[in-house]
């Protein structure tokens, strides 16, 4: 396939390379024009601007820092919109904004150009190995048509819903990863300051229910999605006891634990609702109440 690829940075660089390896014909562009050299040596062509990269391409891909760059590369004066042919597809691989992707989708639609949002996860290592998770939003038939192309860059390519849904999924994913790091930082500083070696702590966390990934494989699909908080696997009153003991330990060792303290307040609120004998996932219902939405399949 003829592909215009814009943004040859840490992620875009290896993704473009994998597309070349899969036999696609690339026209590359990056504001840092020196980055194109490695691709020219592998048979790609270079364009001076996004419009040039889009001309004659069946698929145009961008991997750019964020929504501002994506908007200007897509819609700017020498943007993709001025080069892409009718029926071409523009897909953005960056982590951006659902609102911006919907704006671009609407503007491109007037010219008969299709748009997908297709942010990726898996880091530079995943981009190099072609093992990225790619979360795609937009027309479903188009997604199926282009899936084999995406599979040159990632081995987990999934359809998320209408335009913008890929980006929403990516933001949810990153929010979990980023916030979890903070909780893990609290937990490990507590564990180490209270006297356990980091390697021993890691082994304990890896081997336990959390480390086995039960939150994703059991709790979400079996409890939350089904709304089954009454079948008790681990009672909320016991979870509240454990978190209370952990924050007590943190006070003893002078370890600040902001995230744990907030979670403890939520557990207390859930207990005050009389949910002590429900499953310890029950506080999920408090957040559902605050957010005005239920997470059910
Ligand atoms: P990067 O800064 O290494 O690459 C971005 C590239 O875009 C650069 O080469 C830059 O020169 C180019 N660029 C910027 N503005 C441009 C413009 N107007 N026209 C043409 N080229 C332009 O960033 P990255 O780490 O490759 O990340 C790219 C996207 O992927 C980001 O949205 C990021 O959030 C996301 N992401 C990154 C990772 C990661 O681990 N690095 C993982 C998943 C997703």
Task: Describe the structure concisely for a colleague.
The protein is of the alpha/beta class. Helices cover 50% and strands 12% of the residues.
Give the tags.
about 300 residues; alpha/beta; Rossmann fold; N-(1-d-carboxylethyl)-l-norvaline Dehydrogenase, domain 2; 2 domains; three-stranded mixed sheet; 13 helices; 9 strands; elongated; binds nicotinamide-adenine-dinucleotide
Which structural class is indicated by helix and strand composition?
A: alpha/beta
Bound molecules: nicotinamide-adenine-dinucleotide
The Rg value, from CA coordinates, equals 23 Å
CATH architecture of the largest domain: 3-Layer(aba) Sandwich
The third-level CATH topology of the largest domain is Rossmann fold
Count of extended strands = 9
Reading off the top of the CATH hierarchy, the class of the largest domain is best stated as Alpha Beta
One letter per element, helices H and strands E, the order comes to EHEHEHEHEHEEHEHEHHHHHH
Strand order in the largest sheet: 3-2-1-4-5-6
Whole-number tally of structural domains = 2
Distance between the termini: 37 Å
Shape: elongated
Low-confidence parts lasting 5 or more residues at pLDDT below 50? none
Q: Portion of residues in helices?
A: 40-55%
Strand content: 5-15%
Mean pLDDT: 97
Largest sheet report: 6 strands, parallel
Question: What's the name of the CATH homologous superfamily of the largest domain?
Answer: NAD(P)-binding Rossmann-like Domain
């Amino acid at each position: 396939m003829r592909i215009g690829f814009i943004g040859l940075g840490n992620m875009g660089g290896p993704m473009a390379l994998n597309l070349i390896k899969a036999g696609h014909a690339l026209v590359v562009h990056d504001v840092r024009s020196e980055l194109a050299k490695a691709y020219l040596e592998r048979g790609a062509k270079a364009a001076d601007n996004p419009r040039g990269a889009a001309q004659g391409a069946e698929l145009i891909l961008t991997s750019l820092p964020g929504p501002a760059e994506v908007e200007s590369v897509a819609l700017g004066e020498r943007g993709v919109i001025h080069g892409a042919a009718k029926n071409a597809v523009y897909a953005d691989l960056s982590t951006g904004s659902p609102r911006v992707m919907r704006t671009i989708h609407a503007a491109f639609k007037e010219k008969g150009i299709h748009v997908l949002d297709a942010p990726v996860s898996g880091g530079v290592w995943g981009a190099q190995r072609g093992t990225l998770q790619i979360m795609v939003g937009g027309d479903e038939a188009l997604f199926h048509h282009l899936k084999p192309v995406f599979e040159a860059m990632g081995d987990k390519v999934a359809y998320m819903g209408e335009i913008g849904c890929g980006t929403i999924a990516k933001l949810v994913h990153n929010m979990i990863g980023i916030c979890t790091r903070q909780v893990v930082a609290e937990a490990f500083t507590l564990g180490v300051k209270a006297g356990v070696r980091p390697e021993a702590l890691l082994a304990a966390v890896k081997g336990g229910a959390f480390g086995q990934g039960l939150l994703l494989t059991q709790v979400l699909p079996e409890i939350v999605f089904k709304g089954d908080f009454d079948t008790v696997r681990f009672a909320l009153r016991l979870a509240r006891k454990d978190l209370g003991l952990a924050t007590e330990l943190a006070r003893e060792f002078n370890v600040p634990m902001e995230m744990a303290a907030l979670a403890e307040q939520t557990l207390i609120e859930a207990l005050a609702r009389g949910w002590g004998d429900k499953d310890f996932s029950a506080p999920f219902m408090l957040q559902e109440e605050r957010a005005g939405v239920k997470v059910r399949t």
